[in-house]
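Q: Sequence in, structure out?
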Amino acid sequence: MSERVELEALDLAALLCSRVCHDIISPVGAIINGLEVLDEDGGEEMREFAFDLIRRSANQASAKLQFARLAFGAAGSTGAEIDLSDAEKVATGYMEGEKAEFSWQAPRVLMAKNRVKLLLNLVLLATAAVPRGGKVDVVVEGEADRPVFTLRASGASARIPPAFEKLVPGDIAGVTIDAQAVQAYYAGALARACGMSVVAVLDDADVVIKAAAGA
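A: Exactly. Output:
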């Protein structure tokens, strides 16, 4: 049996930082483009275009940063709890800039922060499962201390993220891991930290990702 290979802490931190930067760089770049238009063209029509671009891009960058703060950040002290309505708000804001439609069904309860972080990271995995767009539905059931997360990704060419089955358990042996692939690895680490298991299956043409309390 081959020895399990895990990411070093510094490599994990670097890859997660790269993931956040990947999300932020596009709207920030659009803001810069809008400012350049203002500098180069004084026409009223172009000014309106530039201000609209800057406004939309700033809102998108803010939404992605708020999502990243909750999904990847410390989010309070050890043992802290997060209101699921806050998670819904940042997830909805994030998904407004994505190709897939988004729905969220969950009770408004306080839940342990690592479970909420896991749920948000699963939203990213479900979104990656429909790269050409479609729909991502999130359903949270069960008690706050034993929740069940079900995410259904529907769309053209829906697929389980590459190396999901290997990376979720935390083994990178033979896998080229980058800022996109690290998502499954980090979700698995969060799941283990809060005593949950994560699986992904194909249901006809849909991808279903489910997390529940481990056996």
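The domain at 9-213 is CATH 3.30.565.10 (Heat Shock Protein 90).
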